[in-house]
Amino acid sequence: MLTFYLFPISYAFLSFPIAALLFTLPFLLVQYRRHGYVNKYRAMLLYLFLLYFMNAFYLILLPFPSSVHNEPPTTGSYVQWIPFHFVLDIMKETGVDWGHPSTYLRLVQERAVLQVVFNVLLTVPFGMFLRYYFRTGWLKCLLLTLGLSLFFEVTQVTGIYGIFDYPYRLMDIDDVMTNTVGGMLGFVAAEWLSLRLPRIDKLDANIDLASKRVSYTRRMLAFMLDWFVLNPVIAVLAILKVPVPYIIAVVSYFIVIPYLSNGQTFGKWFVRIRVRGAASRLGIRELLIRYGLLYGIVGGVNALMISIGAHRGGSSIAILPLLLIVFAVNAIFGIHLIMCLFNRKRQLFYERRSGTDHAITLKSVKTGRNNAS
């Protein structure tokens, strides 16, 4: 019986690194946007919640039938609607002699009993997370646990929503009941746990965001968001045959907008950072130097290469010198970037020349708006 449960758990742990990798990008975006930084304790809890949910989902799905064209259930019914039917199963299968207490220990080895215990334990962590981390009340916990259990049961009874020809597990009202009980037990247990762990609503109480360093990870997220917005704009300008679309887009987005917003683009606004100059107000000269070096030289040679390659099909021998220049510029910049990553005191060349760096923006307590730190 235990082997039946260990099989899906092992698969959950094996696939967790992939799921965690996919989870990291939205996790970082939400943490930077909502809290202004990444708290390691909060991160640990959320990744544990992801691991728990993967285990729970694998436990109710695995093992799969050998083929999607599986046989229908031998019972002829897909649903068990009788509440507390598990009591009859226990009485039918048990080897306990109720007149001899010494046989009572056999209960912990019997399939029907272990099935009930498993269904209760399955959602205990869910109830604990709901109360401790998400700070839900008992009614919301009850409804969410009930909803989770129904989701599990519907997934099973539909053959994972039509992937399999027939359901390969029975939908059981007892499972819904015991899962819901497990969630509420977790809710009660979380009260004891809360007294011994840091309070979630107090994690950010003594954090000084103004003194925190803006990491390269955070800057890369802002970069990705900015170019997610800017690439379609450049494409539309090119389709409309606007002259030098790359230059127009870069100047408008990385110089005009940050000058008007005092150092923010959409990407930087989303992860709550801004470009900071020597004075409280970011100057146009600082922006011209910063982004002229970054997107004029490093980005410019790459954009020129892409443009020439698109027009000539990349077959002309004339582009070979430019290709070598692009490779050299990218290699030098890549080495420079790696050196800055491993030496926090070293500045990127365009920041050093422009006298700019990054700062975290702070949320106003009253208005909720972002204020420059």
From TrEMBL:
UniProt domain VanZ-like: residue ranges: 49-191
Keyword NAD applies: no
Any Pfam family the entry gives: RDD
Origin: domain of life: Bacteria
Localization, UniProt: Membrane
Range of residues in the leader sequence: none
Membrane topology recorded in Swiss-Prot or TrEMBL: Multi-pass membrane protein
RDD domain span: 216-349
Any one Gene Ontology cellular component term annotated for this protein: membrane
Main location class: membrane
Transmembrane segments: 12-32, 44-64, 112-134, 141-164, 176-195, 221-240, 246-271, 292-311, 317-342
Keywords of this entry: Membrane, Transmembrane, Transmembrane helix
Isomerase among keywords: no
InterPro entries: RDD, Teicoplanin_resist-assoc, UCP031578_Vanz/RDD, VanZ-like
Protein name: Glycopeptide antibiotics resistance protein
Source organism per UniProt: Paenibacillus taihuensis
